[in-house]
Amino acid sequence: MANLHIINHPLVQHKISLLRDKNTGTKEFRELVSEIAMFICYEATRDLPLKEIEIETPVAVAKTKVISGRKLAFVPILRAGLGMVDGVTALVPAAKIGHMGIFRQPDTKEAVKYYSKMPDDIAERDVIIVDPMLATGHSAVAAIDEIKKLGVSNIKFMCIVCSPEGVDKVREAHPDVDIYTGVMDQGLNEDKYIVPGVGDAGDRIFGTR
Ligand code: URA
Description:
There is one protein chain. The chain is an alpha/beta fold. It is 31% helix and 31% strand. It has six helices and 15 strands. Strands 1, 4, 5, 6, 7, 8, 10 and 12 form an eight-stranded mixed β-sheet that branches. It has a three-stranded parallel β-sheet with strand order 9-11-13. A two-stranded antiparallel ribbon has the order 2-3. α1 (10-20) packs antiparallel against α2 and α2 crosses α3. The longest helix is centred in the N-terminal third of the chain and has 19 residues, at 26-44. It starts with a strand and ends with a helix. The mean pLDDT is 95. The structure holds uracil. Residues 80, 133, 135, 193-194, 197, 200-202 line the site of uracil (URA). Uracil (URA) binds at residues 80, 133, 135, 193-194, 197, 200-202.
């Protein structure tokens, strides 16, 4: 069964509290999403393989370590996932970025894919899908389905707030995909928003509505 990693770091918890506040404006909300994404990414990349190399320091030759092995791609789920890209690429600048457009059908809340553009070598990369809100899990499952179809074998899912329903849904459909989140909330309301959540993350990042 996939692991659920809740990043209980005080800085993450503090920043999520600021995100929740309905009085937090677009600029600050956007900055917070990016910063929290960076902290969660730090944990999600904890198992990256290392290899030993030698580097000459001004004093001596050092046996030291660098990241090795398969390369990484981040895949934000449009639109809100875009808000996490700056933060994660600040940590892993060499990563490539794929884009996955999925929208929630307003009546059924089902996930509909409308766009996908991935790096050519995606099958050779490990993939971390990013979306601030894991609510019903429909978009997450649809995104993971699509990325698996492209031949990717190592996928992680990163969000900032999740619901128990979303976690169960992803775990049921994709037990091999670890989930990294800042917090798990109570559940979903009748409109499938996370309670208490942060509201509509896409609207708050981009200042729409
Ligand atoms: N998407 C959001 O932006 N917020 C929610 O609470 C659920 C889905």
